[in-house]
Amino acid sequence: MEQKTIGFVPTMGYLHEGHTRLMEESKKYADILIVSIFVNPLQFGPNEDFDRYPRDEQRDQAIAEKHEVDYLFIPTVKEMYSGKEIVTINVKDRTDVLCGKSRPNHFDGVATVLTKLFHLTQADFAFFGLKDAQQVAIVKGLIDDFNFSVKLIAVATVREDDGLAKSSRNIYLTKNERHEAAFLSKALLEGQKLMIDGEKNPDMIIEKVKKYIVEHTNGTIDYVDLLSFPTLSTVEVIDQPIIIAIAVQFKKARLIDNIIMNTDGTVPHEVV
């Protein structure tokens, strides 16, 4: 009997083009496509948007059917977490920067649910979008440290025509905020231009990106940072692949974006 390969796309639902791009990528690698939809309570903090996170199971099922998903897995919280856990997962590295800095235990929740999902699906390939590059870096560490047989495939961020990264949270933006949000990706391109021109000082690039965001939006900057990738360590001079990552809080939506580059400002073909 021919052994078929399994591709796995984990999501929290409210599917958009970013998710369907992952599904399309899976079909290039694997024979069978599994998509999971699970809004994981362990990765939400007490003041975050777990209860109002957008959900539309019927819509998601229609999208999955349209994209020829073989198995759509939509477990309940009780099915995923049946009681008081005996073993917990604590991510010790790559978490105290970027989103992890202001979201303690968030990536513990991500690592916990993915450990379960990797075991349940027995996938050969798992597909993650680079919009959340910190998550990609941590998943890479999880797979390596726990010797999962699954191969991580990181897929480029899917964007709107004006450059805004696709996100389920974009629906929370007002009309004016939606216009301003397009400048986030443009701010990253300003940082890229500096690197292409030969700038090696991270502080200079960070300040340029911050200035651009302040001048073009009314959002509150959570962070703008430049780190090594995928190790997410501080760099004093750019002499290795890096990520410029940003998070900006609008009234009801916190948006993240990033760009990963080689030392000369070019975007690498593969990042993990």
From TrEMBL:
Gene Ontology biological-process entries: pantothenate biosynthetic process
Cellular component, GO annotation: cytosol
Location relative to the cell: Cytoplasm
Reactions it catalyzes: (R)-pantoate + beta-alanine + ATP = (R)-pantothenate + AMP + diphosphate + H(+)
Complexes and interactors: Homodimer.
Primary role: Catalyzes the condensation of pantoate with beta-alanine in an ATP-dependent reaction via a pantoyl-adenylate intermediate.
Extra information: The reaction proceeds by a bi uni uni bi ping pong mechanism.
Protein name from the UniProt record: Pantothenate synthetase
Gene designation per UniProt: panC
